Amino acid sequence: MPSRRPSGRLRHLPAISLLVFAFTTIIGWCCLGEMNIRHLFKSKAVYVFRVIVIACVFSATIFHANLIWELADTFNGLMVIPNVIAIVILAPQVKKLSQALPRSA
Q1: Nearest-angstrom CA–CA distance, 28 and 95
Q2: Do residues 20 and 32 make contact, with C-beta atoms less than 8 angstroms apart?
Q3: Tens of pLDDT along 65-98?
Q4: pTM above 0.85?
Q5: What's the first-to-final CA gap in the chain, in angstroms?
Q6: Quick one: pLDDT at residue 12?
Q7: Is 97 helix (H, G, I), strand (E, B) or coil?
Q8: H or E stretch including 1?
Q9: For site-directed labelling of 7, which of 25, 42, 99, 105 has its Cα 20 to 30 A away?
Q10: pLDDT tier for residue 4 given thresholds of 50, 70 and 90
Q11: How many other CB atoms sit within 10 Å of the CB of residue 37?
Q12: What is the DSSP track for 4-55?
């Protein structure tokens, strides 16, 4: 039975693709985070954010992958808190604006 593994130059394609995807994802999230930090706290806080990002990226390279995934899941879960607070605060405005819309048949 022939091997299903790519040979020659193609054998490195998945690893290179994963590297490029991971690198561009980190860069994209860092840029988005910097814009948010700059908007919320002004430019001096951006340097603190960069140090935190560099520490997180470095620690992700030395700690066990299961720990990193657990931390990522925890922080994603914690993002629910500010979203729920915003929904509660904005609900009256949404209700008022939705009542002003014309009703369709």
Answers
A1: 35
A2: no
A3: 999 899 989 999 999 999 999 999 999 999 999 8
A4: no
A5: 64
A6: 87
A7: helix
A8: none
A9: 25
A10: confident
A11: 19
A12: -S--GGGGGHHHHHHHHHHHHHHHHHHHHHHHHHHHHH-THHHHHHHHHHHH
Round to whole Å and give the CA distance between 84 and 88.
6
Nearest to 46 by CA among 33, 27, 57: 33
Tokens of 94: 């949404």
Burial of residue 30 (CB within 10 Å: 0-12, 13-18, 19+) is middle
Residue 8 structure tokens: 């020659």
Using alpha carbons, list the distances in angstroms from residue 81 to 28, 68, 84. 23, 21, 5
